[in-house]
Each structure stands twice: as C-alpha cells, then as structure tokens.
Amino acid sequence: MLFVRKKVGGRIMLRIAVILVLLPTTWAAAIHLYVSPQGSDTNTGLDPSTPLKTLQRARDRIDEPGILGNEIYVELMSGYHDLLIPLNLTHGYTALVTFRSYQHEEVHVTGGKRITPSLFKPVTDPVILERIPEEAHEKVRQIHLPDAGITDYGTMSVYGFYRERIAPLELFINGNPLRLARWPNDFFINIVNVPDGRRGVRFGYNNSRDARWVGEKEPWTYGYWFFSWADQSAKIASVNTSSHEITLTAPTKYGLKTGHLQKKDNIKVGDAQQGGYFRVINMLSELDQPGEYYIDRSTGILYMWPNTPTGYLNDSDIIYASILDDCISIAIGANNITFQDFTIEACRRFGIDGTDLESVSFLNLEAKNLGSYGIRSAGDSRNITVSGCEIHDTDGGINVSGGDRIDLIPSGNVIEDNHIYKVGRETSVGADGISHSGVNNIIRNNYLHHGTYSCIMWSGNDHIMEYNHFEDCCQNATDGGAVHCGRDWTMRGNHIRYNYFQNTLRTWPGGQIRGIMLDDEFSSVTIEHNVFFTNEVHANIGGGRDTIIRYNVFYNATEISVDVDGRGLNGSDLPELEAALKAVPYTDALWSSRYPKLAAMAYDNVPGAPRGNQIYKNLYYTVNGTRLINYHRTYIVNNTYFNLTDNYQVAYYYLYYIYIRMFVYFLFLGNQIYKNIYYMVKGSKLISYHGAYLANSTYFNVTDNFQVQSSDFVDPEKYNFQLQGKAKAWAAQNGFDEPIPFNQVGPRFAPGPTYLNKGMTIL
C-alpha cells in the first residue's frame, strides 16, 4: 500500500483507507468441519470431539446457512475414508473451501471396499485346481465377493492408445496393485500369420500353451497389433488349438500384422519390424505368479495370489477392491476449492475430476491405484495449481487444459514440484505423466520417470516447461518422446528450457525414441539450456518450421543428437495441418504480432517445407560414430516423387545401378522408375533415397555448435556438467551459460502428504 500511495497519490490512498475500514466487518470467519471414520453424521462436526462420519455429510453442511460463504476447512481425521458414492461438489464457492488432513495425520480417501483378509480361503474345488497352474495351488486364495458386500464387478472394456480406461474391479493389498492374470507375464507373443489380411480378426501364433485356454469364460488380449506406438486390448471370440489361431470379436484400430519381437535389450530395429505381438489376459488358467487375480463374474468368485512378501495373507493386511468410477467429481465451472495433504486411491477411473474449473488447487496429495488419471481438470480450466503431489500406479498422472487459443488468453495453470512415475499400469500410449493443452501452462520442477510412453504430452501455445527431470520415459512403446507433441503449425511460442533428459531409450522394435519429439511438422518451439544425456535421440524436428535449438548440452546420444527431416514436403498431413491453420485467426493483428512467421505462411506456396529452423551454439559429446545432426530422408519414399513399380530382382545378372541425386530448392515430382531387372549383393539397394539436400540453411541453419570430450565436464557420471577445459573457454567466448546444476531440477521440497515423510533422493 505504501508503494501504491507513493506512486499514484492521495485519491487512491483515500480509497484504500475506506477499504481498510470496511474489511473488519466483511471478512468471512474461518469455519472448521471435522470428519472421522469413527464419527457420526448426526454430530455437528464443528469440533474435533464431535466429528462427522462422511465426506458427503460434510459437503452438505458446507451449504447450510451460517456456514456457506465463510472460509471453510474440512478437516479429515486419521484413517480410511471410504466413499460409498462419489463425492460430488456441485457448485463453486464465494470463499475458499479446503479439504485437508487434520494436523497432517495419515488420511486415505478411497473409492473402494475394504475386505477382511479372513474372507479369503484356499481353493479346494478340483475343477478350479485343474485349471489353475500347479505352482499356484498352494498360494491362490478365493473369495465370494457378495460375502464381502461386493456385487459390482465392473466390466472388461477396450483400452489403450489414448482411450481413457474405466477399469473393472481391481484389487490392492497394502497399497500395492494386483493385475489380471496374463501370459506371458512380462513379454509378448509374436503373430506369425494373418489369414484374412490386415483388417481381419484372425491371427496365428506358434505356441501349444493355448490348450489351457479352452473353456475360459471371458478371455481377452492386449497387444501392439500393427504399430509399436499403438496398444489396444481386444476381446477373444474363439481359440482354435488345432491351427493355433485366435479370432477377435472386432478388428483392432490399425489392423494386424506379423511380429518380429525378440528378447533383447535395447532393440534397435526399425519400423518394418514393429508391432505384431500380443499377450492374453483375464484368464484363470494363467494365474501363475504373485500379484495376479481373476474374477469369475458368473459365480462372483475372485481368485488371487497375494503380492505380499510371503505370498500369503495375514490379519494385518489392508485389502481393497475398487468400486467407484471417480472418487471426487467437481461440477462444471466450480471454483475456490483446495484439496491438500491426503491420499486418494482405489477408484476405477479418475481420482479427482472436473471441467472448466477456476482457482482449484491440488496440494501435497498422493494419487495412486486408479484406472486412469490421478488428477484431471479438463476444458477451459483457469488458475489451476497442482503442486507437490505424488502420483503413481495409475493409468495417467495429471491432465490439465485451459486458456483461450483464439484470443491467446493465458490459463494461469501451474503444475510444479510433483513426483510422477509408473503411470501406465495397464495402458501405455495415452497414459501420460502430464497431459496438458491450451495457453501458457507452466510445468516446472517435476520429476517424471518410468513412463510407459510420453512423460509429457502437450499441445497449445505459449507454454513453459522448465526445471523438470525426465528419466526412463517411453519404456513400453516406440516412436515417441519424453516430451511429445505433434501435427500443428499454429501451436507456437512454447519454451522447453532448463530440464534434464536422461535414459530415454528404445527397448522394443519400431521408430526412434527421443528426449524431445516434435512430431509431424509441429513448429516454433524454443529448446534451450537443457542437459540431455544417454538418450537414443536427444531431440528431433519432424518436418516443422521455425524451431530454435540452442545453448543445450547433448551428451552421449546412443544414435543421434538431433534428428531432422522434411516430411511435410510429401504433403501427407497437409489437409489436417491446413484445417488447424484455418481454425485460428493467424493473420489478425494479435496473432501476426505474436507469431509473424506463422502469418507469413499465407504466402508460402510450399507450406510443408521445413523452413526457418535454427540449431546453434550447443555443446555436444558423441561416441561410437554418432552425429550431432542427422538429415532424415525417409519422407521422400513417395510415389508422387519417385514412382517405383514392376522392378524385378534376379540372382546372377548385374544390369544397372541407379542413384538419384536431389538438389536443394528443387521439387522433384513425377520421376518414374519401372520395369528394370536388378541384382544386389551385401545389402546394397536398388534405390538410395538421399537426404543430404536438407542440409541447407533455409531449412536447418546449423552453426557454431561445438564438439567436446567427456573430460570437458567435471563429472558427467554424477550429473555434474559444470564446464571445464576447452568447453569452458568456448562457452566464455560464445555466451553459453553454465549448464543448469542437477540440484535445481525436479521438486524443490518433498512431494506427497506429510505423513509419508519422504521426498526425492536423486543420486
């Protein structure tokens, strides 16, 4: 106030004085409502000695006269608060309403039903014992779910590839999830033939184990049926043990193909050998190891092998079955709500879900054992804060969107200081650590690791992703990135800076894995001041424009530091890209002033050309012949450019070798190469599609990058990339700042509820 008074004078000071007089009479008193699993909903809840029992009753009390309109704290007392129905918050509030743990006690809000361990019995039915593998006979236990008050078993459903999962009933023991019985347990089976072609529903395999699958009541499969970046579950219609064929009830999204999967570490085979592998799930006959379960929905009996240290249950074990779809649901447009300092778990879909929210905060929560995202704030949500949360063992971490892309109004959303890991329990592709979109989301100081696909998937404008640590992302799929976006020219103004990208490596057949993936002509991202180490590809520019890559450390890429291409020149995605361009006012005053290079595309007769990219003043260290830049050429394998038909390979005659040289600035259309006879040896090719013409400054201006040795960093093996030697001298001459210290990325304080009393220990 002193600053304002000094700046603007007496008239404003008078107004401030009036406000100060009014404030004591208009301040809302803070009201505390106490809730305990041992309480009673007939109590007032206004004192710790007379707590309410349920969150639903606390929600109703908030709306009562004398309470509504005040600042309210719903104090959750120690224990498990099991929701009988979802906690639906049906409107917003004029004053802040906070749901939090009372005095930082251990609090769990669950959407599940607790089951007494003694209700689980050994299996004695000889028919069931005949079906269960012999090694499981002694350990498997069964329960008649209605005896535990459970009659809603949920349903098996299609999930995978960006389809949000509503799980069937799942089981958790001492906070650890079990999974549906499956085989193979940790690998897949190759498809060896597809009798009805790609779009059929039959496929063959080489395995006689299928004899035990006969008679299964509800068999399903899960696999990467065609691409290694598209997973999907699929229901089995029949199993033919004579021909070793499975018939599905419906085609998969991209069809079927034969597989080439092998048990090798760091598989680096390309697109032609991706996909075509599956596993069977939800089969009692495959309940063969600890941590697996199966529900016979016709009898209501659940069978499981406990995932406890001994493989048996004791009376102290905490066992939950998930019942509700969503634990907490917030009405469209609700505002002024905070959730703080407790665990939310055991729901079949979202932990907390809302749309078009305003000023809602999620602070120091733990979200785990959920069927989909832990926290979701969809639509045009504004001023959302997700801070200090621990999210794991879900199918997605945080999903937030907001802001106005037409008028480029920032969302005010902040996602910071979270620890997010193992968020692809069942789904891989689409179960992102953070999924965010809109305008100007701030994503900072998070630690994301052990993700099945992208650790961050994003879209929109003017976002900032900084001071995050990414490790071991994209573990179950290929052709992805730890930070991943794609197929839009208009989503500009984004910054990825001051992050660490570590160990993003390919372990399945298919396309490359990148630290940062700008897919399908995504454009105009500034990537600067990051440290990349031991990734397959540190970053790529997938045919887009106007991206700047500068002031980064690229250390020890296993394949390439930066991969670039000109895929837009073949025009395959042009209709979709042009539709996105026309959907925004990219030539009006606001957009053209913010993104002048985008406005200039209105006059570009080759909009798919990868113009204006700049890669400069990066430090890089490479081994084993890896390169700083790879100019990718596969996009020119296109019959619009080179129509290859009816060429015939022979065994003994060498007739001709054709080499096509492409020049920059020349659009090569209409070439035809057909009806030639050719002979090849030692892996030589009929055609070489050369990509060197991309190496020109109009497309990719690559300048002033400096190659160093490992010794030019203080101790890379211990994440110390402080410069020394010739790197330090070069940096001083080129305005290259010291790389961000490792202790400045990731959470700045211990994430999760206080009772966990744990934080991040990063060696």
Automatic annotation (TrEMBL):
Right handed beta helix domain ranges (all copies): 406-553
Pfam families: Beta_helix
DNA-binding found in the keyword field: no
N-terminal signal peptide: none
Keyword Transmembrane: yes
Matches recorded under InterPro entries: Beta_helix (IPR039448), PbH1 (IPR006626), Pectin_lyas_fold (IPR012334), Pectin_lyase_fold/virulence (IPR011050)
Protein keywords: Membrane, Transmembrane, Transmembrane helix
Membrane spanning residue stretches: 651-670
Protein name: Right handed beta helix domain-containing protein
